[in-house]
Amino acid sequence: MKVRILTSVLAFLLLASGALPIHTARAAVNDYVTVTKSINPTSITTEQEAEVNLQVKGTPPANVVVPNDVILIIDKSGSMNNDNRMTSAKTGAKGFVDLMDMTKHRVGIIDYSSETNIKSYNMTTDKVAVKNYIDTIQANGSTATGDAIQKAIDILLADKRPEAQPVIVILTDGDATVGSPTPYEFAKNKAQSAKDQGIIFYTIALLGPNDNPDTSGPNQLLKEMATTAAHHHFVLGSTGLAEIYAAIVREIGLASAYNVTVSDIVTADFEIVPGSYDNNIPKPTVTGNTITWAFNELKDSNLTFTYKIRPVSKTKTGTLATSASSSIINYSDYAGAARTKAIPNVNVTVKWPAPVITQIVESSGHPDGGNQVTISGKHFKTGATVTIGTKNATNVQIISDTEIKATVPSNVQSTVAVKVKNTDGQTASIDYQYKADPIVTLITPNKGPLAGGTKVTLQGNYFMPGVKVKFGDKTANSDSYTNVRNFSVFAPAGATAGPVDLTITNPDGTFITIPAGYTYEAPPVVKPVVTGVTPNSGLTTGGNSVYVNGQNLSANVTVKFGENAGTIQSVNSTSRLTVIVPAAAQAGIVDVTVLDDTGSTILENAYTYNAPVYPDPTITSISPNSGFTNVEKTAVINGTNFRNGAKVYFGSTEAVIKGSISSTKISVDVPNVADPGKVDVRVVNDDQKQAVLAEGYEYIVFVPDPVTVTNLGLTSGKLPGGDTMYITGTNFKSGAKVYFGSKPGLSVSVLNSTKLSVAVPAGDALGVVDVTVTNPDGGTGTLPQSYTYTAVTPTITSLSPDRGVKDKATSIYINGTNFESSGMTVKINDVVVSHTFISATRLSVVVPVSATAGVVPIEVTLAIGTSAVANYTYENAPLGPTPTITSLSSNNGSSNGGNSIYVVGTNFVNGSKVYVAGVQATATYTSATRLTLKLPAGSPGPVEIKVVNPDGQESNGFTYTYN
């Protein structure tokens, strides 16, 4: 909790409590006020401002306590109930009273909220009575701060002791909300009125825990109301309030000066900046060059007053005094004697503003100089000098305080500072660029190899250190920079032979381009040559290594044997390669060619391909050597000298080879044939050599095991199917399928050779079907006319509810079995109604209203036509209580009708009808005990009035007389 407490007054606790003797009033002999003055900054230009800081501090006498009459103003508006504020305020106020020395001081209370809820307890020395009164204060209402202050003024002036200092201590937590022209102005005006009448004004702002004191409206208001900034305090939340009250009570009566006036008179060289003093508490008055603060008392804490000054003359400079010698503080000491304290002067150094350069035209020029420039800016003084780089400009003309003209001296090509120096030594600068495009007079040499690396020297003028050269689009590496007339670079490698532009660019961006300034020369063409191949023959399968001899050979050449490229295995030298020979399609003599991007050479008839000679294949066995006709199977052929690319035949039918072929084994898919018998098996290698195993494989007719179906777990079921059953029989095999008529069964699981399970599929129609089991090998068995598809019939087991009021549509559930999600209809009393399918056992429908009560059928019909019926009962709505007429607001009236009367009674409802002499009249429902009746015209004489409710209940008759 941030709490600002007057810690400096703690030393006066003994004095405030009366422990030390009090001397009679007499003229004080000491100086009870000190004042210091400072200024920031201490040096300004004729266009700048400086802030003056006055520190005024009192030194109370150590043995004097002035009697005080104190009014505590306590806010009791509704917001004081927040954060325990009211309790803390009362506790702090009672602590304040406890600490007061009632032998010298008196205290009174103002507690306030709205302007009509301001109460008071007059000044007294009875601590107990005051604290008892404080305990009765309760928070409620708005915040009439100004009215409360006026009430305190009235009490202090009405009961004023000549020897006592009147004091107001106000505590509030909220904005002033009462008074005009605004509540704030009203409160501040009342506080100023109190101070004008010599009343010391303490303020305490009781803020919320999260409020910002710098932006809080109540805090700013109370700060401006206080006698000085030292008389204002605030707390965030209620913690610390008691300590502030205690600090205030300890310091009342201890003051070094009263009726203080601080008058600071600014010398004629300066003027006071308007508004620069508005944040001072109290706010000063300013008349011309005199600024004055007035307040009722000065404690021993520093009061800080600030304001700003600025030079009047724009030409006068030097060390100048800021205060006149007549600047003074006037005050009265505790004995009432008039006293003064001189306010010290502080000096400030005033100088011209430094020159400022905003522009130079032109901002660049030739290194030879001689051109005139115009320098624009401000604060240029007569006698100012101009330097450009390290040289003085010539022909300098001070045109005005914003313009200078000068002639530029020569310089090397570079960027330099242009400086303007006033006669007081202050300077300003701006950049100026000496620039000229480079000139090239000679390029040596102006051509070189495409590979680059040639040292090229350029001669001319205006070359800067760091100059760059591009050969076409490639930047050269620098060799050496000699001077502005000579430098050299190394030519980069070129992309293609031929001339390229040379671009010379200085670091300052100046450049020159020499079209076709350098020529790249193409290197001589050296193509590869083949002179021989060793060895010069090999098999058509290739893969053997040979030496290719010749000239200018490298890894970049291609070696072709006929039309096929070999693989370079190694580069032995520029005259020999080791090459792997490619395979050839046929035997014969071919040319050998070597080629690269420079060209090719051919050595004719340089290499001979020889056909390889392979041994004949043999078949030693086939495993297995027999199998069923029209059944997929695999066989392995064993033998010798089998080759990749071999083909296998069973009779005249080629078999499909599986996997790779080894020299002794081939795996094949045996071709399917329809006819049984033995066939030859042939293996034909890619060189057309073959082996035959006569009648090596026999096809045998396949006869599947007979299947029987002996029993079904279920012999009938609903047409939609879905039931699961067991089927028993013989020779059931894994993968078997089950058919109900032509429909395949679902989720077939073969448990063993005699038992399987199956889910019955949906049938096409009602009736009996065959059940057939078929094995993967074709074996099949049927139990004829063994399963019956039966119709599905719905049932209704209950209606929930099964009855309802006939005048109201009612939602009900139909509970039963075999309900379907589609194709089903629901009728109520033979009328189709919409329904919601919930499940096979529940539907929901809305029973429509009925004109009559009674039992009606509810029928559910499936798509196949089967149905179920249940009864629903329409009931009459229960009758309400019988209406009664107890009186009429008037029992007679004109026979012309048109007048309105009240019908008074019981059990009337909205919609009740009123009959006069048996004819319905216009009536308005007002309440259950009153109807408003507009009487129709009638014949003179008595008539009967009755009320009939919407449920038909009829009231007693009541007599009305037509006059």
From TrEMBL:
tRNA-binding is among the record's keywords: no
UniProtKB keywords: Signal
CDD domains given in the database record: IPT, IPT_PCSR, vWFA
Entries under SMART domains matching the protein: IPT (SM00429), VWA (SM00327)
Database matches in PROSITE patterns: VWFA
Tree of life domain: Bacteria
Domain VWFA: 69-252
Protein name: VWA domain-containing protein
